[in-house]
Design a protein that fits this description.
Layout (H helix, E strand, L loop, with lengths): L21 H18 L14 E2 L2 E4 L5 E9 L5 E11 L4 E6 L25 E2 L2 E4 L5 E9 L5 E11 L4 E6 L25 E2 L2 E4 L5 E9 L5 E11 L4 E6 L29 E4 L5 E4 L4
Antiparallel strand pairs: 1-3, 2-3, 3-4, 4-5, 6-8, 7-8, 8-9, 9-10, 11-13, 12-13, 13-14, 14-15, 16-17
C-alpha cells in the first residue's frame, strides 16, 4: 500500500450531472443539510439538522449514551468539500443531532488559546484520521490527524485536546500548535512533562481501566523528524498531563519482532503500521489487528 497522501476532490460539486445518480443525490442532500445548519445556532437540537457527508472523522460515546462526531474530510454547510472541525452530538432518545462547536464552513484554522486553559473560543483546527478517547469523567479527548494548525498551514499534527461536555469548552492540553513536529521520546518507561508523540495520522487508541489513554503507530514523524510508518506505543496520564513512551522504536519503518505465537516476551513488538484496528477486553488487555504496513 502506498503512503497516505492528502487529496481533495473539491471540483466535483461544481460539475453539472447529466443524469440523477447516487453522487448527485449525495451532494444535494449534503448541501440541503448544510442550509439547515445555517439557520440553527450551535447547541440547539432541531429536526432535520444533520452533519454533512464525510470520511475520516472521529467519534465518542458519552456516559449518557449520546454519540459524538468531530471533523473529517467532507461537505460543509455551503456544500464545499474540504477538512472540517465541526463537533456534533446525537441523542438516540430523540433521534436529533445538535451542532455543538466548531465552524459550519470548511478549512478553518485552529484557535488554540493558552495551553491547559479551557475557553469558549478554543477549537481544534479541521482534520481527518485523528484518534479519540473518552476518560472516566466523561471528557472527550482528541489527538493528531492531518489538518490545519494555528497559523493555518496544512500538515500532520500532534496536538492533544480535551472537550468538557458540561461546559462545552475545548482545552489544548499538549503537543504543538504547528504542524509536522518530531516526537520527544525521553526515556522509555519514564513519564516526563516534555514528552510528546510526534505528529501523525491513521494511528490507533485504547483507554485502560485506570483512565490512561494509549496510542500506537500511524503515519507521522519520529524522534528525528523523519516521516513514515511508526510502531511506538505511548500512554497519557490524564491526572499528571504527561506522556510516557512505553514500547516500540523512536524511528520509522521498524519490522515486527513476533517471537513465538501465543507466548508473551519483552522483546516482542508489532511492526510499523497505519490504519490498525484496536479494542480492549474485560481484563484490560489491549488488542491490535493490522490493516496496513
Amino acid at each position: 500500500m502506498n503512503d497516505p497522501v492528502f487529496s481533495s476532490d473539491s471540483g466535483r460539486q461544481n460539475t453539472i450531472p447529466l443524469r440523477i445518480g447516487r453522487s448527485f443525490v449525495r451532494n444535494f442532500t449534503s448541501m440541503l443539510a448544510g442550509l439547515l445548519v445555517l439557520l440553527v445556532p450551535p447547541g440547539l437540537p432541531a429536526e432535520g439538522i444533520t452533519p454533512g457527508a464525510r470520511e475520516g472523522a472521529v467519534s465518542w460515546t458519552d456516559a449518557a449514551g449520546s454519540l459524538w462526531l468531530f471533523g473529517g474530510m467532507g461537505y460543509d454547510s455551503a456544500g464545499q468539500y474540504n477538512l472540517l472541525n465541526d463537533l456534533w452530538r446525537y441523542n438516540p432518545a430523540t433521534s436529533e443531532w445538535t451542532w455543538m462547536k466548531g465552524a459550519n464552513t470548511a478549512d478553518q484554522a485552529g484557535t488554540y488559546g493558552t495551553q491547559g486553559v479551557p475557553a469558549s473560543t478554543n477549537t481544534p483546527g479541521p482534520r481527518d484520521r485523528a484518534v479519540s478517547w473518552t476518560d472516566g469523567s466523561g471528557a472527550l479527548w482528541l489527538f493528531g490527524g492531518f489538518g490545519r494548525d494555528h497559523p493555518g498551514d496544512y500538515g500532520t499534527i500532534n496536538d492533544l485536546w480535551r472537550y468538557n461536555p458540561a461546559t462545552s469548552e475545548w482545552t489544548w492540553m499538549k503537543g504543538a500548535n504547528t504542524a509536522d513536529q518530531a516526537g520527544t521520546y525521553g526515556t522509555q518507561g519514564v513519564p516526563a512533562a516534555s514528552n510528546t508523540p510526534g505528529a501523525r495520522w491513521c494511528s490507533t487508541s485504547w483507554t485502560d481501566a485506570t483512565g490512561g489513554l494509549w496510542l500506537l503507530g500511524g503515519f507521522g514523524f519520529d524522534g528525528v523528524g523523519s516521516p513514515g510508518r511508526l510502531n511506538d506505543l505511548w500512554r497519557y496520564d490524564t491526572a499528571t498531563n504527561q506522556w510516557v513512551w512505553i514500547k516500540g522504536a523512536n524511528t520509522i519503518h521498524q519490522t515486527g519482532a513476533y517471537g513465538t505465537l501465543g507466548v508473551p516476551a519483552a522483546a516482542n513488538r508489532p511492526g510499523a503500521r497505519d490504519w490498525p484496528v484496536s479494542w480492549t477486553d474485560g481484563s484490560g488487555g489491549l488488542w491490535l489487528v493490522c490493516t496496513s504496513t
